[in-house]
Amino acid sequence: MSALRVPNTQPIQYTMKIDGVAFTALEDLKSAVVRLPAGSKLVWDSGCFWFRDIPLGAQPRMTMSSFKQFCQEHQIEFNYYFGY
Fold it and tell me: Are the C-beta atoms of residues 64 and 80 closer than 8 Å to each other?
């Protein structure tokens, strides 16, 4: 899983990618997670940028802890890392 900043957007916008498929809306990302096989592992390493939430859509956004819980409810392991 990765986040890519969309160039020349104000406010700043991102797309999230899972296995090469880009998502620009949180509901679409959540739908993709639900379709993953039970027991799947979803890992996001954002490098040196720390995100407190999933950077899709308007504020308020889904927090990392809420997204992790959502994944757990669908038997998906979600791990988020940042920093080097």
Answer: yes
